[in-house]
Amino acid sequence: MTKQYNLIATAAAGIEALVGKELRNLGIDCEVENGRARFSGDLETIATTNLWLRTADRVKIIAGEFDAFTFDELFEQVKAIPWEDYLPYDAEFPVAGRSIKSKLYSVPDCQAITKKAIVERLKEVYHRPARVPLPETGAFFQLEVALLKDHVVLTIDTTGPSLFKRGYRLEKGGAPLKENMAAALIELTNWRKDRPFYDPVCGSGTLCIEAALIGHNIAPGFNRSFACEKWDWVDSDIFEKVRAKADEQADYEIELDITGSDINGRMIEIAKANAEEIGLGDSITFKQQAVKDFKTDKEYGVIVANPPYGERLGEEASVRQLYKEMGEVFRPLETWSKYILTSDLTFEEFYGAKTTKKRKLYNGAIRTDLFQYWGKRPPRKGKKDE
Known about the structure:
Helix 2 crosses helix 7 (236-249). The strands form 2 sheets. The protein has a 7-stranded mixed sheet. It is built from 10 helices and 14 strands. The protein is elongated and about 75 Å long. A hairpin with a 2-residue loop joins strand 13 (357-363) and strand 14. It has helices spanning 16-25, 43-52, 71-79, 107-125, 179-187, 206-215, 236-249, 265-277, 316-330, 347-351; strands at 5-10, 31-33, 36-41, 58-67, 95-100, 142-148, 151-157, 197-199, 258-262, 284-288, 302-305, 337-342, 357-363, 366-373. It is an alpha/beta fold. The N and C termini lie far apart (59 Å). Helices cover 30% and strands 22% of the residues.
């Protein structure tokens, strides 16, 4: 039987449920908790989740978990974990740390004790002299000791650079939306691949590119590698198999109606270059245009926007003018649904309409709301001609 691992996919606050939904869509049972979803699986599961999760940050192996109230307890229980199952003798393994509402509140001490316990364990297993340090010249393993209310979870990161780093962003604008946050916003809308998608303030094109990846069913991690691929106990054939399967599942033939515009011509050039980088240049139309100049005859489309928030001094008036223009242009589009993310909680006042629904999200460290205006539903097929 193949070895099973306890795993977690970490996520930004407020979008854990989306990660849970993605895991279930991949056929993986999970439990959603604050900031993460727990699941289990083998190496193929690790490869699949790294490749396919659009809204998560990382996929981590849980090496061990227990309660600890003293540094002695922490040391002994860390040392009891079979680290040799994961770490070769020459592994490079820095230990990151977090501690919330725990008796062991000193993070540097928790990190140092965890590291010391692992070193002692590996020296005993690999029969190395106590006084000679481990070389740490081999493969890289990022470990973390995380304490919450005296409960310790020790993890090994399989991902490497966060999953939002898809590998297509050659350049970005001043306040870019992370790729996994952009995917989360799209997942929270009623957009489907047979409907028009429009971002009126597209910046470097992230929302449009993520929509195109979803529309074509392209795995978001297809264009990059992961930390665990360098580990000697991870067979490279597993990742090759998962990538080949993902390639088969992609639908490159489907015609998508995705448009992004921005008043800044330089940003449009960057957006086009980013879309070309991932091979989606033909799937998205980018054009230089002010929000107030937007017109459309199309119906049942979806607008998703991450406009400037007016966080910087002196920007508030121009940003609120933009919100007003959005209202004037978008409100008459009764069949279109609109989703606008901003930290300005008075947005509705300037847009000129109450939302259907609001959802609190964190864009990085900034508390924001997703202001949602739902359009009329398209008629059911067959009803149109009655």
